[in-house]
Amino acid sequence: MSPSIRADIARKIINSNGIAITIHLRPDGDAIYTSLALAAMLDLLGKKVQTVSHDPLPFPFCEFPETRRIKIGQIEPAGLDLVILLECADVPRSGQTKIGQLPKINIDHHYSNSPFGDLNWIDPQASAVGEMVYGLVEPLGIKITPEIATYLYSAIFSDTGSFQFSNTSSQTLDVSHQLVEAGASPNAVAEKLLNNNSPSKIRLLGRILSTLQLNEAGNIAIITMLARDRQEFGFKEIDIEDATTLARSIKGVEMVIFFKEISPGEFRVSLRSKGQANSARVAEKFGGGGHVNAAGFTAYGQLEELYSRIPAEIENLLKSQSRL
Hints:
Blueprint: H1 3-14, E1 18-23, H2 29-44, E2 48-53, E3 71-72, E4 82-86, E5 104-108, E6 119-122, H3 129-134, H4 137-140, H5 146-159, H6 170-181, H7 186-194, H8 199-209, E7 213-214, E8 220-225, H9 227-233, H10 243-248, E9 255-263, E10 266-273, H11 279-285, E11 289-290, E12 294-300, H12 303-323
Helix pairs in contact: 2-5, 5-6, 5-7
């Protein structure tokens, strides 16, 4: 963590009064809980805070009482001195269209970030943006509360795949230890984030897993969710990402390709990997991006053609990666 940029960001926050916090489109647990933690931190400083997500929150986060603080839609710029964008590669990634002239702080742990802010803190070595925001507690001069500790621990827990992904470092565990010391309960967070599935979600997971295909080498797993299946069970496509976790657990599988039909001829393709397979580099080849172990892109065409072409191309990319 860079002490200089943290001090600059803290100084800018302290000298601002009206502050908006926003997160990326299709928000995940890291973005959601880090925005809540940062909002609570700014509350302690007496700031007027808006916490805004352009997109609705996915299941199960949308059902938790604390997430009601996050407004869905557009930031209202009146009375604002500052906007803090979390995990946004650029302003369009936030979906916010009314913040063009406002000062911006850009905090992200993706290496693909373009430094668009007045202050830019980009740390690809951090496991989660929640890990980074913990580094603002000291320069802001606040005392972390159990609520803030729980939010930040939840953010890190989410983005490390409950500490299973390769982005889990000694620093990640050290920060998590300090958050537990400050009042976060590992058991309560795990119970909340992992064990809140509904019967309908489990049935949908079963249908998705019934589409499982493996390539001949057994190192790529392919699963599919059609729009009609998602609609039948009442879920959005982002609500069911954990299907990839189950497929990724298969012995020998290095990458999971999850085709999710958004509309006729449009598919969101999620990639999840382990070992040396780099999801981000694969996704970039298809115009997408993300993390080493979790990335995605959008593909257009008929499922049959995409299903035969994309896994074959990805298999070749993985062979190229293994030769590096």
